[in-house]
């Protein structure tokens, strides 16, 4: 049949061509929202429900209360269509002056200075305000106006008192009374999301001036919550980086319960906090089911019916409604204070109740705790200096899990909500449900392509590794005839000791089994792991790194050979290192004989080598070291020849972390078993998978349940995680979604500016750089106790970078930037430039 | 200030009193949806957008295609207000007959038999249809009518052919043209959700008769997606148990983009699949941004403008629109076939790619795989017998994680979506964000009340246990002077061997460290765990169980004492067993000396006992054994006297699983460390927490990072899990939300019918019953290979119960029912009665 699903179908067979998909754009500046006074976003569930009536009522309530106290109110209308016939800021401006005049009768001292502004407009909208022939400056078809009008309502004896102040601002106006995206298109007046956000921020910063007044601010959206803004981005997405608290103007008419609830849910699905719902009374008591739906956790306020007569000046209506607006104002002020108080109290409460992993609490006094209010794409929104929420680039990619940009984050939230609603969690064994099946198949077609046949789900990297080890040992036992013996006699006593072959510096997780597969380190002593023995044979690997503009090879002791000269030890580019043709090099032969020699030295009394386990290409927790991929490939081949099962620990490296979907692609060889986690869900919730070949699977098949793999966690293959994973796996490799992927590519484009990276590598304060895929790691020159995992050497540098809006967490004297697979190179390089600047300062300060 | 947040505020100070909170009610029957033909729900984003025009168009398209093929179309309108002036089923009925007459001009053979029905109506709505004085039967104020009308459009030469068939049914009608919940209230005609669902199901079953025809069915909702139904439940919640695929009629007007997107998101947040969006053309090309938002994955269809003239018979409009309706019909037919095909293919695909935990794949051929389409509260919706989706009670409570009823599930989905949108995931160490803080504090105030001071987050029970063991051993080392030595000399060689004290039959998780803390069992042999040593000293505990109407105590070998007689060995009630006054019994003394004696026998050469670890009261995976709580309490006291840290493994028992928030309450004593998981997130996603006292925490404080607890998982304290946990922890113990909690209670009400439980306990086929909180476990009498974990003895019983709509997973010859903390006793007892009936059959079949 016809594939209709990708088409728009119109009755008149006119086919609409889609423009670029909508996306949430984050600004290039780190955005900041002041917390010195309340700022609210006014939303509504549909157009024409009275957002501006509410803004006006709030302005009136705010300015009129306590007449002796000087107050200011900022009303911002970022986007106005139908201008000049429709101008919400003019409505607020003119109603407020009328209300002030009326109010003066009651409060003779009350005085007000009101102004109304228009910053930019399309040519047609600007025409009415410009004298013919007046000079016009255009940017993207929008005319710079900076037009304003002003009115003063003077109170009795108010000669010397400064008046209260109202500032109304329309940021952008178009003439057509249609949705902003249409008006912008029709009038050739475009505004990018980032420009709009920056203008909002600037208006919020300027506010109403720096006078000593009580400020209050509302930003009024256009149309409904999900109406497109000028660029076509939905407004709920567009304003998301600010995440201002919200007032929702609901619908009191027939059908309005549904529209209000749906709009509320759209806001929640963008991470907004709705502080109150307010709606007009249409006699249908819609507020009752709404309050019930909200379980009384969000107040619902009802305004009196608005006069239908268009000539009504609404003065009486505002009189009738003033108690509702006063209550709403009280709710908003109180929610604001509570929020600020909560943000201020959080560090204290955190150090009282948390026990952070990998953290010496002595080093984290209250003042060092970062309060994260939210995240949007690659950025945290952080509570800073006690009076603002500001963006910080999440350079630790939230501890190596993080993937989505703002657009994918929103899509993931919706899909995750859907999965929670459709499945919650359902038991996995012997069952099938769509997300688990979809995810398993995507894994096998993607990171498991050409080798894996089975997906075993668990919860995190450590459990995925423990499962992998059980699989490998069973396979080894099966292949080497140990199984029959052990089945005959189910005691453990007569069974051989199995160990892993692994590399020094690799790290596979924190549970005991995963720990046993790593070499002794600061993580494994009695202090940390009383039960750790180190059940492995651990080889020192050769590593590669960028230093002084050159990629260098560093060989471990015992691998130096007279056949090697400088030529063998350096590479012009990273691609040379990753090239498979190195298999034919002298070095490959040297590696091979080194490995054989080492293996022959391992005494059988210490056990049988039952598995090889490696982190392909990059040792993550071990300090971001790049292992020579040729060495790992030779090692894999040696083990395969000896029928030793091969495990790739791709928990860190998988899903484009290193620029390819699987790091096995960089190694040009396959494992028998591989473990995935972290980025698998796009960086949202824990899920992991151990993939295996059918040959491994078959060693668990038999006539008894006791022969099956008896390892599982309650939430195995949980539907919510599998849904997030399926979405992210698809998204990351889809060139229509991820701009870093070329249409036929299996490789991310280069994310870190090559020139800058080389510059850093040749800096005297820098020991080495490793840059690959989403990772840019930098080891600082450090000696003695300044080096190593326990070192605090980088902490001052890290602190300064947080001031710059870059949130890092060092690994001792190694710092790194990490982004998501969709992050634009522009964002990466902004962060990298900040790092470079601070590095220069840092290394100067170290020299002094 | 005034606490306004819990109030509804109206301009006229009239305060509305809320009726009962809305909730999603599941029917008492297991609901079934046929899959033999397409059935769709027609939704719209607001009222009056043309749902009925669309239903009519679909009916016309369906009935007129392939005139020689006999077709039938069922149109269901469950809820109609404004009757009889508004009757959507009458509209469909009358338009279709007109269209059929018109159509006959083109297709002379076409013939149609159409009928329109009304089942029940409020008195005022019924009045117009009833002759005065006609007998009336009322139920809850709704009059039984079963009224119908019929029309026939005969085709040429169609004398012998059966005509195509249209059946239009209004299920419930009210007179007032307002929202159904208001109409029902005003007209005193109430309909419970469950009654409505059962009527829908019955109508769907009867359909249009059993003739050999191509059937098609639409169910048209009233108002918008979240408009209340007659009981006040939102319709998107009300119809959720069926989870029928959806058509969304969107809004083509100004503001309609937003309303349509929000309505779509409301449906997604209930787990619905929207197959297509259709909207009327208002010249604003709303379809372009909609298609962009939907990323072309859901087709958007545009209908021609509907004539404004109310006297227009729409015949020409339907002519204009017919290609859109034909396309929509094609999309719906194709989505239906794809869905059925997918459901049919899933078992085959599952056995090809999955590797299920704890599953011998040999025993799970394709035919044994359960396809779970969704869950709603306590029920799975399962694809059954190849032609229906039917409800099954999730008696394994999705492997011991499950908590929410349908209402909480919806709330959790919204909160989870919100957390994903607000935070995605953000890094935890040294940071604070609201959900983590809220969750940590709720844990300390709840399950950690009066003893715990710190929360350590991880991902699942196993990791929580590994962390607990590390904490306990450090504390022990600290208290017993081992720490200084080990710090002096960081080698592992000189450190003592530490072991745990634990009970035989307890189970603490599947990672190696957790495994080492359990006694050797079928899970721990070389075949499963080559690295397992069993690093513990394991005691046999006394157990208690219900058998033959009496609670019995079973003592392990070595604990029999001449002081014990039958009187000591039986209890009249479970409360007697849990009573703390037993501390003063002879048995307490016997236990104490037994434990001391055992401990004294443990040779120091085997290590130092560095921790006690127990599952309080119930050994879960070990076979649902109830350990004598007195014994565990005595054991805890003995260890405390020896300064051995005490760990409670509450991963299974925590959060009301056993009727109290923490099982420690049943033991009447506190641990130093406790582990929680599973139910912590209400049964949605993995999260776990290890709680500890400040004394334990302090043993990790020092001047080096290397002294900190270096164990953590990437998603530690992930915001989405913490949000779900905070919601669930609060919900379960809130008597306003959870009907099983009394207003001041810390105990769930009894969920399993006592009489029936005792009856089962005295059945000859039953060895023992353990019933406590949400758990009802039953051990079948079984000998030899029929007993134990590997046994398949219960499989035929389990299979039969699945036919009855009860989904169980046995633990060998132990079967169990498990519900959530909010599940109504009615649902529990329905399931238990089914078990009893099948047990009788089963035990008879075993005798034969």
From TrEMBL, chains A, B:
EC number(s) on file: 2.6.1.62, 6.3.3.3
PROSITE patterns the UniProt entry points to: AA_TRANSFER_CLASS_3 (PS00600)
Superkingdom, natural source: Eukaryota
Subcellular localization, as worded in the UniProt entry: Mitochondrion
Transmembrane feature ranges: none
Pfam families per record: AAA_26, Aminotran_3
GO CC annotations on file: mitochondrial matrix
GO BP terms: biotin biosynthetic process
Keywords: Aminotransferase, Ligase, Pyridoxal phosphate, Transferase
Gene3D superfamilies assigned to the protein according to its UniProt record, in alphabetical order: Aspartate Aminotransferase, domain 1, P-loop containing nucleotide triphosphate hydrolases, Type I PLP-dependent aspartate aminotransferase-like (Major domain)
GO molecular function, one term: dethiobiotin synthase activity
The keyword Heme is annotated on this UniProt entry: no
InterPro entries (alphabetical): Aminotrans_3, Aminotrans_3_PPA_site, P-loop_NTPase, PyrdxlP-dep_Trfase, PyrdxlP-dep_Trfase_major, PyrdxlP-dep_Trfase_small
Chief place where the protein resides: mitochondrion
Protein name per its UniProtKB record: Putative adenosylmethionine--8-amino-7-oxononanoate transaminase, Dethiobiotin synthase
The organism of origin for this protein: Rosa chinensis
